[in-house]
């Protein structure tokens, strides 16, 4: 296949993404306002809690089996390598450009986490269905391509919420927030101090009364003391477990997407459950059909929201030009070059199966723009929202050229 044909095949999915993104941006304009701030928040919640878990879980259940799960073991390792290399390059960029402290986590995050979710799910099936595809039969390519893309999406989501979330959380906590956040923190701190004082120094607290109370305490029976100890220990255990499972970090790790990935993986890998739910002859196939129907709405909705969120980047923010250039160099030059070395080395060592489509997906994971979930995390912590919008605007504007060129080269390299 010639270079021009490969370029045409690689450009089609990217052009589709750009067109839908442009529609989302137009819908967010003030004079239209169909995707205003409140609407985006509600739709983002719908995507986060319903659509995205349905897409990930449904695709994993349908495409991942106990046989190909063993063959695909290198993909989670490869995604981890992209995060490690991207973080190292992002850390170097932070040291060179010296951005404000609250932006350091954001910069490392956008350098490490690529859009492993909706972009591969859009790009790979479109390439498979194109007449000029170098990956053979379109149906076989689509089946295996969706398995690769689904696993990439699931693993990427888990890594983002475990790793990038905590990096940005630590960075955002270094610098004091706006006045309302400061006052909120002061109120929380004073509330904790008052609680502490009420427990330790409150004269109404029986534990702090002197004289008669001390004598009374000494006269307590041993059985009553043991019962009090048992009650206090059980109460402490209950309190600690409540704090652990209610902790925001725990909830972030076990996000709806992560839980959807776990359920989908179990359904796909366990033969008995798979026979009950997957396939037109399965007794419970209506569940799979319903989940698939929900998942199909995810990609266009996410892409529309992505375009609407980019509108904020058009208004500008205090993001240095050198930082933006550095992020573009990391994501579209350094990472893809290093990714070629990693995948070629892994193939030579026999760690990667000699499947051109599989190798193409592994390479593509190094050449994607930053994950859109980073914008959600920035909004969650209230640190670097405007800067994140500017970064997303530039990275996704140039993705039309960068992803197309790298996809063309990757297809030529593996095919």
From TrEMBL:
One of its GO terms (biological process) is auxin-activated signaling pathway. The keyword Transport applies. GO terms for cellular component: endoplasmic reticulum membrane. The keyword Transmembrane helix applies. Keywords: Auxin signaling pathway, Endoplasmic reticulum, Membrane, Transmembrane, Transmembrane helix, Transport. InterPro entries: Mem_transp_PIN-like, PILS1/3/4/5/7. Belongs to the auxin efflux carrier (TC 2.A.69.2) family. This is Protein PIN-LIKES 3. It comes from Vigna angularis var. angularis. The lineage of its organism: Eukaryota, Viridiplantae, Streptophyta, Embryophyta, Tracheophyta.
């Amino acid at each position: 296949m010639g270079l021009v044909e490969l370029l045409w095949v690689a450009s089609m999915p990217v052009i589709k993404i750009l067109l839908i993104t442009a529609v989302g941006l137009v819908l967010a304009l003030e004079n239209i306002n169909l995707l205003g701030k409140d609407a985006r928040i509600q739709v983002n919640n719908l995507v986060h809690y319903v659509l995205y878990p349905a897409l990930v879980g449904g695709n994993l259940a349908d495409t991942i089996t106990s046989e190909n799960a063993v063959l695909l073991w290198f993909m989670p390792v490869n995604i981890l390598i992209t995060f490690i290399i991207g973080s190292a390059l992002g850390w170097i960029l932070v040291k060179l450009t010296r951005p404000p402290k609250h932006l350091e986590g954001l910069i490392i995050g956008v350098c490490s986490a690529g859009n492993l979710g909706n972009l591969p799910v859009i790009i790979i099936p479109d390439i498979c269905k194109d007449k000029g595809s170098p990956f053979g039969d379109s149906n076989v390519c689509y089946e295996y391509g969706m398995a690769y893309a689904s696993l990439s999406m699931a693993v990427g989501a888990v890594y983002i919420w475990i790793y990038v979330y905590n990096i940005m959380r630590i960075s955002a906590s270094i610098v004091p927030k706006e006045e309302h956040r400061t006052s909120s923190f002061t109120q929380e701190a004073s509330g904790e101090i008052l609680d502490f004082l009420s427990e330790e120094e409150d004269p109404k607290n029986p534990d702090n009364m002197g004289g008669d109370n001390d004598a009374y305490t000494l006269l307590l029976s041993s059985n009553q003391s043991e019962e009090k100890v048992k009650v206090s220990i059980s109460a402490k255990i209950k309190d600690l477990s409540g704090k652990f499972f209610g902790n925001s970090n725990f909830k972030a790790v076990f996000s709806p997407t992560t839980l959807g990935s776990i359920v989908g993986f179990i359904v796909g890998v366990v033969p008995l459950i798979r026979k009950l739910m997957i396939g037109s002859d399965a007794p419970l196939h209506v569940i799979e059909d319903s989940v698939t129907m929900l998942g199909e709405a995810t990609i266009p909705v996410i892409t529309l929201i992505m375009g609407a969120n980019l509108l904020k980047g058009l208004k500008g923010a205090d993001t240095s030009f050198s930082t933006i250039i550095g992020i573009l160099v990391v994501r579209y030059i350094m990472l893809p070059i290093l990714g070629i070395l990693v995948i070629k080395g892994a193939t030579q060592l026999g760690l990667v199966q000699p499947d051109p489509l599989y190798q193409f997906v592994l390479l593509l994971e190094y050449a994607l723009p930053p994950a859109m979930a980073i914008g959600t995390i920035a909004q969650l912590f209230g640190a670097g929202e405007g800067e994140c919008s500017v970064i997303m605007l530039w990275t996704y504007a140039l993705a039309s050229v960068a992803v197309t060129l790298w996809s063309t080269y990757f297809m030529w390299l593996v095919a």
